[in-house]
Each structure stands twice: as structure tokens, then as C-alpha cells.
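Case study.
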Amino acid sequence: MAGVNKVILVGNLGKDPEVRHLESGSVVANLTLATTEAYKDRNGNRVENTEWHDLELWDGQAKVAEQYLRKGSQIFVEGKIKSDTWQDEQGNNRKRTKIRVLSFTMLGSKNSEMGAGGSSNPNTMSQPNAGNPQPASMPSSGGNIEEGDDDLPF
Amino acid sequence: MAGVNKVILVGNLGKDPEVRHLESGSVVANLTLATTEAYKDRNGNRVENTEWHDLELWDGQAKVAEQYLRKGSQIFVEGKIKSDTWQDEQGNNRKRTKIRVLSFTMLGSKNSEMGAGGSSNPNTMSQPNAGNPQPASMPSSGGNIEEGDDDLPF
Amino acid sequence: MAGVNKVILVGNLGKDPEVRHLESGSVVANLTLATTEAYKDRNGNRVENTEWHDLELWDGQAKVAEQYLRKGSQIFVEGKIKSDTWQDEQGNNRKRTKIRVLSFTMLGSKNSEMGAGGSSNPNTMSQPNAGNPQPASMPSSGGNIEEGDDDLPF
Amino acid sequence: MAGVNKVILVGNLGKDPEVRHLESGSVVANLTLATTEAYKDRNGNRVENTEWHDLELWDGQAKVAEQYLRKGSQIFVEGKIKSDTWQDEQGNNRKRTKIRVLSFTMLGSKNSEMGAGGSSNPNTMSQPNAGNPQPASMPSSGGNIEEGDDDLPF
DNA sequence: TTTT
DNA sequence: TTTT
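After joint prediction, the assembly is written out as follows.
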């Protein structure tokens, strides 16, 4: 009965986050993420295959997404599969699957346009804290994103 | 462009595998897997939430599933999200998401009724070998599974 | 700078958990977990390879481990790699690596001896709650572990 | 007996790959990868914690690493934990743990200086093909990686 | 609809 | 030291 339902994605956003601020005070962000794999077919031709994922983020995560993510952003995502089922007007059973994001991390060098290397760290950003307002700076990486730190260990 | 699309599941099969042997010689198995999470709601009541996943296995993997998996079997699954999109009769865009299984492992302790603990090991069972016929014994675990138990180990 | 450090293991405990109750009130459990992979070598002989992992659990997780896990228990583990570095008496740099467990799930059928299907669910058991005392029953699965529930969905 | 031993990392290389071409024809690359997590301590101060991982890649993977990875490169890694055990001169049992890389993906946005986004795709680069020589271009992504960027982006 |  |  114990279960594990885990999704790990690295890809790029297809468009800017769509964020809704609910009357309840909750915030929801919807993202579309492309994961592309490339391989050679039997004829040696390069084939590219893109899968589009619908991501849903809540509250603190949603706010960070709203502030830092943009169309094209590359992110690492950890979450779980969550599907809605309902009956349509014709009485057919319908199912729609999305990824409930539990944490995400911005990828790319610190020199990229939006700042970078930010992380919605599981320790500080995941569910239990989801209701907390997020600081203006990137959580758990924050502070020095936009500052020049020349003493990086690399 | 580099992408990662990875799913990890642990759950139980909702029914026996449905296996089709195609004219091409390929074999496809479809499984439904339940992953259950339980938590306490705000009132301290235990709530259980089950997500049903549609799994698809091919060739060698499908044959192992056909032979060893049954309704109720607990398995560890690694795969990727794969969705089909099409237009229905009303011209609406439709999307159906399933998990393409890349490897799976049977779970269960030696003390449990079902014995078992076979593995469709990535090294021997994953895509590159998917076209190879599988031996009657459980791959990469084999040995004593086939020893006269006509009643399946589960 | 954003980083991901994630470990996923399924294996069996080499011995009973070793649990220490610290003066601070913290509880630490140390487990050894074997993950075995089997493959055929070039000669077609079956080869088995076992890796032993040192796991460390804290507080709530440690208590659950103490209560429910035993030598031979099969578990799913999610955690991160954590290494200690120091200098030994000869002045050599030394490093020891272990897995800091963030959540784990007991595997095996409902009929197995120890009860089963328990889960130290991330939502209820992970870091943020780590200091909370755990109920005698298995968290987030609890209650009905030892009771006959014939209406299981499988 | 069925086991799972999986590691997923996202981090930056601490130095250029160290590559050895063995007499046997095999190629080994050793990398050091830093995964950094940041969090706020009880006093609200930001704390940063870096874990260094020793990675080992073989053959095709090693060659790709040699050609494309440099100190500071950000990569996604999938692999498994592998430890060596031996006795030192004093007769003490020693153990050293490293990550055997099964696949890796270069990260970085299109806006970052080095371009990039190559992938050692599991489908084309993982174990079963490890002995195959790699093309000069980045497998399943290629292109603009090699364009003379001597000033590292970090 | 992203990215290369 | 586990498990099969």
C-alpha cells in the first residue's frame, strides 16, 4: 500500500508562467515544460522527440516561478504525477495528467540573463512551508544571485 | 535542449497484465499501477489518496511482465512520461499520458507469501535488448524461480 | 550553484537498526542496506554484485526504523549523499560517505510478517517534522497494518 | 534480491576531467562534482553546504567528458554508488565511495556564454554502447559546443 | 509552446 | 551483514 510516485524532469519552459491568485489567498502557477530527447534512428538520421509536460505549482513555489521563470528557462523539477478524472458532456470518462511540482531548481550559469542557480530547495520551499510568503530574493540561494562573487569555489 | 524525463514508481498492479502479440513480432503489455499516499488532513483524520498510472512495456519487458506479474504484484518501476495527442470526433484536442517502462523490479520479501524479488535489470532488460526474446527464467535473478512451481510464485 | 543530490535505493537491511538516543533528545538510527544487482558475464555465467550502503536516519524517521525495521527488511529509500572528512592519526585526509535518509517506505506484501506497506511519507515524516514523536502505529499508513482489511483494492 | 541503486546529481565540476587511456583500450575519466544546498539556520542566517562527489566515467562517456566538460561545467548526472574496500598498511578496513556515471547531460541556457546543452543520452550513450567511439560532435545535441570559449563562464 |  |  505504501507507494512512491516521483517525477524528475529537466527541460525548458514553453512560455511564461501563468499565475492565478485565488480568493482564498492561494497562488497557482501553471507551466509547460519541454523535455527533448534526440537519438539516431536505424538509418543513422538524428531524430528529435519532444514531450510536453503540464506543471502545477502552489503558493511559495508559484510565487518564485512567477518572479524568476520565463519562457525558455531551463529548470530541474521534482514532483509527482497527479491526474484529474471527470466525465465530459458526452458522458465519457476523461483523464488529464499533470505534474505537481514539489521542488524545482533553475539551471544555467550565474551569468545568464535572469540571474541563475536559484533553487526552490526542498528544505526551505517544499510543501510544509508552501504557505509562507517568499522573499524577493531567490530562496535558499538568494542573496548573491545578482552580486558579483568572485570567490566562487570554481 | 538536453532533457531529462524520468519517472520512478512503487505500487501495486490493479489487474493482470494485458498483453498483445503484434503481427510485427513485437509484444506490448499494458499495466495499471496504483501508488497510494496517506496523510493526515487538518483535522487529524487519515486520508488516503490513490493515483492510477497506465504503464506500457515492450518486447522483453512485456514478456517478463506477462509471465511474472499479476494483479496485486508490487513493483518498482523506472520509466518516462509519454503522451499521445489526437483530435477526437468533435475536433477537440485530446491528450493521453502513460508511462513507458524502461525497467522494473519485483518487490516483496522472502517471508511474504509470494516469495519473489525478480528484477528486469536495466543492464539486461532495458531498451537496447528489448527485442531479444527472454528466457523462461526471470532475467538477472532467475535461478530458482522456475524450479517446479507451476503455481506461480504469487 | 543550485544543486541536486539525490539517492534512491531499494534493498535489504544487513542487520537490525542501531539506534542511539542522544542526551539532546535527538535519536539517530544507523542502517546497512544491501543493493544487489545480477547480470550475466561474457561467458553467460550469472554474476551477483552487492553494494553495501551506510544509512543514517534522525528523530522521527529513526524511531520508525527502530520500531518496524529488522535485519532482512526490504525498503525503498530516498536520501542524499553526505560525507564526513577528517584527518586520521597519520595526518592523512580521510573521507567516509553515508546516505542521509529523507524518507523511506517498507516494501513487501500486506501478508508479510512485520505487517507491511508502511511508509515514512515525505509529507508527514520528512525533515520539517523530524522532531515530532511518532505514534506507535506506522505513520501515514498506520492503523490498519496488522488488522485484516479484506476490502483492499487488490 | 532485486535491488535499486540510483544517484541523481546536478552540480558543477571542480576541475577539468582527468582522463586516462588504459592499455586495454578502455578510457576512464574522473570528475569531481559539487552539489551545493543553501538553507537558513535557526537564526535566519543563510548557510551553504557543499558536497563533493567523485565521479567515474568509462569509455564513450569518458571521451565525451574529456571533449566537452571543463572546470565549472554544470551537468545532470545519473549513476550508481560504487565503493571500493581494501585494507590499508595498518590493516584497517578502508572504504572509498564513488559515483559510477551511467549517463550525463550538460546544462546551461542558450544565453549562457558557452552555449551548450549537450547530452550523453541514455539511449545513445549508456553502458551498452559505452565501447563505441563517439563522434566529434556532441551526441544528440552537438553543434556549438566547441566554438572557442577559453574564458570559462564561471 | 521550449531548447539545440 | 541482506536478499534470491
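Observations recorded in class. Confidence is low (pLDDT under 50) at residues 109-117, 122-154 of chain C. Chain C is about 10% helix and 45% strand. We will return to this complex in the next lecture.
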